[in-house]
Amino acid sequence: MKSLNLRLTKKLAYALNCAILTPENLAGKAITDIASLLINYGRTQLRVDEIFEISGTPLADATKTINFKDATDKLNYLGAHMASGCITVEGNVGAYLGFNLNGGIIRCQGNTQAFAACNMLKGLLIIDGNTGEFLGGATAGLRKGMRGGMVIVKGSAGDRAGDQMRRGMILIEGNAGDYCGSRMIAGTIGVLGNVGSYAGFNMKHGTLLLVNKPNLQPTMQDCGLHSLPFLNLMYKNIAQFDTKFSSLHSQRVHRWVGDAACNGNGEILLISA
Amino acid sequence: MIINSIKIDDTFAEAFNMRATRVIITAQNLKWAYHAANAMTGFATSVIGCGVEAGIEGALDITQTPDGRPGVSVLLFAMSSKVLMQQLETRMGQCVLTCPTAAAFAGLENGDRINLGKNLRFFGDGFQTSKLIDGKRYWRVPVMDGEFLCEETTGMVRAIGGGNFLILATSQPLALSAAEVAIEAMRDIPNVIMPFPGGVVRSGSKVGSKYKTMFASTNDAFCPTLKGVSKTEISPEIESVMEIVIDGLSFDDIAKAMRVGIAAICKLGTRSGVKQISAGNYGGKLGPHHFKLHEIMQATNV
After folding, report:
1. Residue range B48-64: average pLDDT?
2. DSSP labels for A27-82?
3. I need a labelling partner for A179 at 20 to 30 A (CA). Which of A226, B42, B92, B261 fits?
4. B66 near A CB under 8 A
5. What is the pTM of this model?
6. Residue-range definition of the domain harbouring residue A174
7. Residue of B28, B131, B149 to mutate, interface with A, max A Cβ within 10 Å
8. What was the pLDDT predicted at A272?
9. What is the DSSP letter of A247?
10. What pLDDT sits at residue A60?
């Protein structure tokens, strides 16, 4: 496949802001032009070729792919503001992976730090490993987190996954930490593994789709067992993605509504076989 | 033109511009989908008195519906977008929302977007929730049997209404029998409905009346009992005339349905009692779409 390869060669002591290394920003640039771009590293700026070994094919347009190789958790803001194209990461990445992601596909084959999919709007983010806190959350000061798109985490997620999430879907194949779906405004979070304490804390709307029953707060109100036809639509949509969630078919769910502490109308759906 | 001993008049059906929409209704089983669809398309034979012309386009299996349940496709036609939107919301609220296990989805992706469940959601009294799935918004309204699921909008497109043909036969039972054969064949054609009872009209109308308050009245030229007193269009041996009216999403859809229906009657031959096929028009002055019977029957792609 014709793609641009950026292999991390420098041992990083500080966080590196990789926001400019997106298909849109690098499209149409020659290798030499890319090499001379400056990126923020700690309190200084470095040329791209001081950090990465650049190889492969220059991107003819913004729909092409960038491969990051030997990546580490010092690479922050990878794929930030990206609207098209594809980024693949071999290794781990730092915080804010897919920050303000507005289209395209990002696939991280390792783990990520906190705030992956922060403020995400559109597109697809796949994390093959684990991810940190505030997956799909909001930037500090903002009142809305993820506002669209699809996030698939093959591993587990930290605390506060989907905090203040407004729209879109997060699918966590492993476990989720405490406060999953906290302050959720809308959207859907699915968890195949276990969920920590305080699931749906202060949620207003939205859906937590769970397979294993969590320790629920008393402010999540038991509404009983139901068959919900809308789940078929959701399963059909999920089926187009490579995820274990594709094996879900049951419309039969136990439904809790809350969080009553904030007069919320969100729901926790526990899939019943 | 004579096909299998049945005369096809050298005339045309005159049709009008309309606005149309399609709704997919699903339910726990086909029986309940039909209950909802039959209610929704009830009292919807003619825009003259019903506001909208509506009918069931066909049944859908579980692979053809958004939620994987059995369903029915419904088409609605009106003379203006405003009337169509009003009728759609009213009929959705009274006929589909109320029907056990029924759900409703957009049947047209193109055209202008009009409300399907957008306002119905308020029936949920604050307990309704929405889901944006694959770019489409759905409303989940809590109801006594569980949840009413409805897509927020559907498409509205320009369409044609009033395609028709007349079946002239030697007796009333034979005319109706031939009409039934035609309707049976035409039900397989997509994008069209025959909105009248059983797809057949026995009271074709002309424009105007001797009474000032009436803007349509009986088509006396085709009334067999008036052969001696009106300017009749029918020959002495004709004792009954049935009309089939077709609304469709495009000219070609209606033309195809007319062709299939007339061909099915002609296939019956002389034993059908049908002597002649004609069509209703207003001299070509009112409707911009003219379905010329000879051209339609000469087309090869039946």
Report:
1. 95
2. TT--HHHHHH-EEEETTEEEEHHHHEEEEEPPPSSTTSEEEEEEE-TTEESTTTT-
3. A226
4. yes
5. 0.91
6. 114-271
7. B131
8. 83
9. G
10. 86
Chain B: closest CA distance from residue A106 (Å): 19
Give a yes or no: residue A51 inside a domain: no
Residues 213-242 of B with CB under 8 A from A: none
Kindly give the parts of chain A with pLDDT less than 70.
1, 273
Q: Please tell me which of the candidates A167, A188, A228 has its beta carbon nearest to residue B147.
A: A228
Residues of A in contact with B66 (CB under 8 A): 233, 236
- Count of CB contacts below 8 A, A vs B? 46
Pick from B138, B157, B176: which residue ends a domain?
B157
Hey, are the CB atoms on B146 and A233 less than 8 Å from each other?
A: no
The b/e string for A78-100 (b: 16+ C-beta within 10 A; e otherwise) is: bbbbbbbbbbbbbbbbbbbbbbb
Its ipTM equals 0.90
* Residue B69 sits at the chain A interface (C-beta within 8 Å): yes
Q: CA separation (Å) from B21 to A51, A86, B108? A: 58, 38, 7
Instruction: Say whether pLDDT at B44 is over 70.
Output: yes
Q: Which residues of A touch B (CB under 8 A)?
A: 148, 167, 186, 188, 205, 207, 226-230, 232-234, 236-237, 265, 267
Number of domains observed in the structure of chain B? 2
- Determine the Cα–Cα distance for residues B291 and B119; give it in Å rounded to an integer: 39
* CATH classification of the domain holding B149: 3.30.70.520
Quote the domain boundaries for residue B53.
19-157
Residue B134 and residue B9 share a domain: no
